[in-house]
Amino acid sequence: MTFEVAVKRVYETPAKADGQRVLVDRLWPRGVSKKDAELTLWLKEIAPSDELRKWFGHEPERWAEFQKRYRAELDANKEAVAQLRGMLREGKVTLLYGAHDEAHNNAVALAGYLEAQT
């Protein structure tokens, strides 16, 4: 079974093509109202631990190690991963994040993790 996962900044305008919109950050993004975000779910439990998030600090040179450590956290977080997989079985899911870096963030890492598991 193939899943359709997209990644998008939460600050971008919601679109019907997004499918289910899931915020995967532990912290609520600044300047975005819950109404404007049009979320299906805020799955903060799937976000990297505070420890890992602070260590990474969105520094690209730490990206490979961040992904490795985050994958280990996801492997241990079966409940949140199963919840997201259940949503993916229903159709497209867009993982939303608040970081400025569009290439190096937890939503990109999470999408890669999910795609590698299918």
Report on this structure.
- This protein has five helices and four strands.
- The chain is α/β, with parallel strands linked by helices.
- It has one domain.
- Strands 1-4-2-3 form a four-stranded parallel beta sheet, covered by helices on one side.
- Strand 2, helix 1 and strand 3 form a beta-alpha-beta unit.
- It is globular, with a radius of gyration of 13 Å.
- This is DUF488 domain-containing protein.
Which blocks of ≥5 consecutive residues have pLDDT under 50? none
State the distance separating the first and last CA atoms: 7 Å
**Approximate shape:** globular
How many separate structural domains? 1
Task: Give me the secondary-structure category.
Answer: alpha/beta
What is the helix/strand order? EEHEHHHEH
C-alpha Rg, in Å? 13 Å
Q: Name the beta content range.
A: 5-15%
Instruction: Please work out how many helical segments DSSP would assign.
Output: 5
- Give the spatial strand order of the biggest sheet: 1-4-2-3
Helix content: 40-55%
Report the sheet with the most strands, covering strand number, pairing sense and barrel closure. Answer: 4 strands, parallel
Number of strands: 4
Keywords:
118 residues, alpha/beta, four-stranded parallel β-sheet, 4 strands, 42% helix, globular
List the helices and strands and how they pair.
Elements: E1 5-9, E2 20-23, H1 34-37, E3 41-42, H2 50-56, H3 63-76, H4 78-90, E4 93-97, H5 106-116
Parallel strand pairs: 1-4, 2-3, 2-4
Helix pairs in contact: 3-5
Protein name: DUF488 domain-containing protein
Pfam family, one: DUF488-N3i
